[in-house]
Amino acid sequence: MRRFLFVAVVLAYGLSLFAQPTEMGPQIKLAEEVAALARELRLAMYYAALAVYAPTPADQRLYAQQVVNLIEGEEGEHFVAESPMQSRVPGMLQRLELIRVVLPPAIPPTKKRAVLLILNNVRTFLEFALGETLASLRRSDVATGSEHLRKAFAFLYTAWGVEVDTPYLGGVWLLLRHLEYSQRPGAPGRPRP
Q1: Would residue 130 count as lying in a domain?
Q2: pLDDT tens across 72-85, in order?
């Protein structure tokens, strides 16, 4: 939990540093989308955890639906707005595609290949999490719903990734690292030229 908080604080600090010049338009858009993806993924994990421990089927469905909404966004087939006043939600799956589109052409080919592989991995894990969350919504008992939501949480957590440099399938943490939005000791917190 401490790592997640650290990454969130560093991400906010790093994003504020390079949101200044206007000529960095695509980089700023990329930074905003990556930050929003990370925020929404963390929020989806939170709702999935709440759904696992929900005391009633109605509570469980409420939390599970929030996970679906965060993954699919308002354009999704299974999106259910809490109220007509709910703000627009693009969804993590759409954000992944937008990140792919706004990747700067100056990214070295090997790094770009790694970023594209990570984006595909994150998409796959989000789709698995969506499937398990939808399965939980079709259940009427809390125990069976919780089984599906534990799997959904595991897929969301895997989509987040782990803080390692060794080879693994990759998640948002590694995406942040490859796009240089994570803070390392002595690093200024902005993309390198």
Answers
A1: yes
A2: 998 878 888 776 65
